[in-house]
Design brief:
The complex is a heterodimer of chains A (about 675) and B (about 90). Chain A is of the alpha/beta class and about 675 residues long. Among the domains of chain A are: about 160 residues, P-loop containing nucleotide triphosphate hydrolases (Rossmann fold), CATH 3.40.50; about 90 residues, Orthogonal Bundle (Helix Hairpins). In chain A, about 65% of the residues lie in helices and about 10% in strands. Chain A has 31 helices and ten strands. A seven-stranded mixed sheet of chain A has the order 2-3-4-1-5-6-8, with helices on both faces. In chain A, strands 7-9 form a two-stranded antiparallel ribbon. In chain A, strand 2 and strand 3 form a beta hairpin. Chain B has one domain: Arc Repressor Mutant, subunit A (Orthogonal Bundle), CATH 1.10.10. Helices cover about 45% and strands about 10% of the residues of chain B. In chain B, strands 1-2 form a two-stranded antiparallel ribbon. The radius of gyration of chain B is 16 Å and the shape is globular. The chains are: A alpha/beta (about 675), B mainly alpha (about 90). The interface between A and B is large, with 70 and 61 residues. The structure holds guanosine-5'-triphosphate and magnesium ion. The site of magnesium ion has 3 residues of chain A, from helix 1. Magnesium ion (MG) binds next to helix 1 of chain A.
């Protein structure tokens, strides 16, 4: 008669490797009945006895939740094995012992194969084998399955155990209350003829385990006991609490077993990541540090992007523009084509594209922060603040995404299950200043605040966050009341940023920026150009053109904010198509081939520093672009909310711009 | 310690699992394993954020900005709250 040994263990603990080491090529592979999970059976002769070895699917526990778990557990319970070899990954003992604890609860014969001791040694994890063996009440054999170490001793130990009585097991307690209930359940089960260990079945019934419950319904013996059924229905309402307590006591047991028998080198010393995190995620310092870092990023962007590289691309665009339009006019090309190219393409589109150097530097620095792992901390810091104002903390993820583009930002709110949290997150997302708005700020900074570019950018972004938080607070207090849920964040360890990642990130962003300029913005500019030169006979780009008339009609709205020119008005409206168009439109209507310098000079003559600020505040806050509005409609499934979003942001932006302008005037700014 | 973990999640004060481990006075490996078991049992849920492919960023020029920040969060489920309140 051959004996059966089952290999049980967590995924990746080395079961199959051990199986192969035990059986050599003497095995066959099939499926477990009814399922596609692989069943491996092998044979080995040891000490004159034949053993059948079964490689069970890897599982973390022996509940009834997953197919793999059920297969492993049923095989063990159906007395299919004379002894179980529990393969435990020595580098991960605490996790692996959960399964071991459940095996002890099943009251089966267990040998613990402490596998991968070579890796544990390399990781300087020290394990007191005798101590663990004593506390678990099972023999422990160290193995290195991949190098066939410890295999013979393991087989010897298993063979001995098969012939020995089961004793010396520790008593696992589940607390006074549950121990009492378990004893009562075992009493009730005692008189019944069952194929399962009573102690185990009692525990499963207490936990409300689905499999045990099915047994209760299907098993004639169990069904017949009225008293048992009554007691179970008494327990049922608190099954979740009992389950939690049982898991709790299992971990207490594991904690007792591993206390001072498993010793890890890094436990005592906090890692560098922990030390840095202590500071950058600090309750009070975290936010100022984040703010300082961002200010530094913007300052550096201007220092490198503007002072070192600024003007280069603008210069190229100027030269190229003059060359193309000059060439065309000597070739006798039609006037309209030359006009389209010089004012529409080179002045309009060029005004957007000339900021590429700054954008390159900005995204490189951001990529550096992201790649290092710091941005995850920033998210954590933001999360704390969000919660402080009563917002669902998780929405910061969508907000971070919104800094790139509000379209995916709005979509990222899908992770919020609570509809109310989600609505708020969607409605405040557009205040996260997206990448497309950068050229707008850069033009105005270039015109009025070239010395303080970093500070101005930082303030604009900061204002966006503050408005988002305030509006979030307002919405959660009025429109959508709801509770805040809680969670732990897992922060990835810091890494040394790689040049490759940083460059690729930068390139992704810049190429995207250029592609957009060549497609969406080009289309918008072309359309606006047509409106700017029609009807024929009037001065192109003048107030009498269609564009000029539209602008003149709406401009009065913006007079209280200080920028009531028709050019600014059409600029803002074209921005609803795509935010970059604001700059493209201004570039076109204040035309000129070497647009960069000219646009900035034109703006200097039309705006003042104060109206420039109020204009920037308006562009930061007002109606999101159509792509974002479309996404809001899709995600909320409601045209009403889309319209609300379009209108309330406009109103808010308008009030903020007027406030800035009026207060500025009062303070004596011009 | 399981209840303490759930309570810690409920208070929402902790930054990282290492810190949590220090607070509970348990080895990180044990805390890690216990949290995973809570996830498996449905007391806690893990959210790794939207997968890149879920967001149709394909056509978006700023797509690469998305989900660079890989964050995993653990939150108590309704089942977890219920078990705690009992
Ligand atoms: N260093 C070392 N590596 C091992 C040892 N035993 C197994 N491995 C390696 O660990 C990995 C996983 O081993 P498997 O045998 O596939 O693990 P398993 O338990 O069958 O995994 P599942 O079938 O997924 O549950 C393989 O790459 C093995 O080579 C060991 O003792 N030491
Ligand atoms: Mg395997």
């Amino acid at each position: 008669m051959s004996k059966t040994i089952a290999l049980v263990g967590n995924p990746n603990s080395g079961k199959t490797t051990l199986f192969n080491a035990l059986t050599g090529s003497n095995h066959h592979v099939g499926n477990w009945p009814g399922v596609t999970v692989e069943k491996k059976v092998g044979y080995v002769r040891h000490g004159g006895v034949d053993y059948e070895i079964v490689d069970l699917p890897g599982t973390y526990s022996l509940g009834a939740y997953a197919e793999d778990e059920r297969i492993a557990r049923e095989f063990i319970l159906s007395q299919g094995a004379d002894v179980v070899i529990n393969v435990v990954d020595a580098t991960n003992i605490e996790r692996n012992l959960y399964l071991t604890t459940q095996l002890l609860e099943m009251n089966v014969k267990v040998v613990l194969a402490l596998n991968m001791v070579d890796e544990a040694e390399a990781k300087q994890i020290k394990v007191d084998l005798a101590g663990i063996s004593e506390r678990l009440g099972v023999p422990v054999v160290p193995t290195v399955a991949s190098r066939r170490k410890g295999i013979d001793i393991l087989l010897d130990t298993a063979a001995d155990l098969i012939n020995a009585p089961l004793n010396g097991r520790p008593h696992i307690t589940y607390g006074e209350d549950l121990d009492g209930k378990l004893a009562r359940l075992q009493d009730l089960l005692d008189g019944l003829r069952l194929d399962y260990p009573r102690q185990w079945l009692a525990l499963q019934l207490l936990e409300g385990d689905g499999y045990a419950e099915r047994l209760m319904q299907e098993n004639e013996v169990l069904k017949s006991s009225q008293e048992l059924a009554a007691f179970l229905s008494e327990l049922k309402p608190r099954a979740e609490q009992y389950q939690l307590e049982i898991v709790d006591y299992r971990y207490r047991f594991i904690s007792e077993v591993t206390a001072d028998t498993v010793c890890r080198p890094d436990e005592a010393v906090p890692t560098l990541t922990d030390k840095i995190d202590k500071i950058v995620t600090h309750k009070y310092f975290g936010l100022p540090i984040f703010a300082l870092i961002m200010l530094g990023v913007f300052q550096l962007t201007f220092a490198i992007g503007e002072e070192l590289l600024g003007g280069i691309v603008a210069g190229w665009i100027g030269v190229l523009g003059e060359f193309v339009t000059g060439g065309l006019s000597t070739m006798g090309a039609p006037e309209w084509l030359i006009s389209f190219l010089s004012e529409g393409v080179f002045a309009g589109l060029g005004a957007v594209v000339e900021f590429v150097p700054l954008i390159v530097v900005l995204y490189m620095l951001m990529g550096f922060l992201e790649d290092s792992g710091y941005m995850a901390r920033a998210a954590y810091v933001m999360d704390n603040i969000m919660r402080a104002v009563g917002l669902q903390g998780k929405s910061f993820i969508s907000m971070l995404v919104g800094f790139g583009c509000n379209v995916p930002g709005v979509m990222a709110t899908r992770t919020l299950e609570n509809k109310k949290d989600r609505m708020i997150a969607i409605l405040i997302n557009p205040f996260m200043s997206c990448g497309a708005k950068i050229p707008i700020y850069l033009v105005f900074i270039g015109a009025f605040f070239p010395e303080h570019g970093g500070l101005v950018m930082f303030s604009v972004y900061g204002l966006g966050i503050i408005v988002a938080l305030l509006m979030g607070k307002l919405f959660s207090a009025t429109l959508f009341k709801g509770e805040v849920s809680h969670f732990i964040l897992e922060l990835p360890p810091y890494r040394k940023p790689t040049l490759r990642n940083v460059l690729r990130n930068m390139w992704d962003n810049v190429s995207g920026f250029l592609v957009r300029a060549g497609t969406v913005i080009f289309a918008v500019v072309s359309l606006l150009w047509i409106l700017a030169v029609l009807p024929t006979g009037v001065e192109p780009y003048g107030p009498a053109s269609i564009l000029g008339r539209i602008g003149t009609f709406v401009a009065p709205i913006f007079r209280p904010a200080g920028f009531g020119t028709w050019q600014a008005a059409v600029g803002l409206f074209s921005g609803i198509a795509a935010k970059e168009s604001v700059v493209a439109t201004l570039g076109m209507v204040y035309a000129g081939v070497d647009s960069g310098v000219e646009l900035i000079e034109a703006i200097r003559s039309v705006f003042t520093p104060l109206t420039a600020v109020s204009f920037m505040v308006m562009t930061l806050l007002y109606t999101p672009c159509v792509a974002t509005l479309g996404t809001i409609k899709k995600e909320t499934g409601s045209t009403k909310w889309m319209a609300f979003s379009a209108v309330y942001t406009f109103v808010l932006g308008w009030f903020a711009a007027v406030l800035v302008y009026r207060v500025g005037l009062l303070l004596g700014f011009a | 310690m399981i209840k303490e973990l759930l309570l810690a999640l409920a208070s929402g004060e902790y930054v990282s699992k290492p810190e949590l481990a220090v607070k509970l006075g348990k080895p990180l490996a044990l805390v890690d394993a216990a949290l995973d078991e809570l996830v498996r049992l449905g007391f806690v849920e893990r959210d790794d954020g939207p997968a890149d492919c879920e967001l149709p960023c394909g056509g978006c020029p700023y797509a690469s900005m998305c989900n660079r920040v890989s964050l995993s969060t653990l939150a108590i489920t309704a089942k977890g709250w219920q078990a705690l309140s009992q």
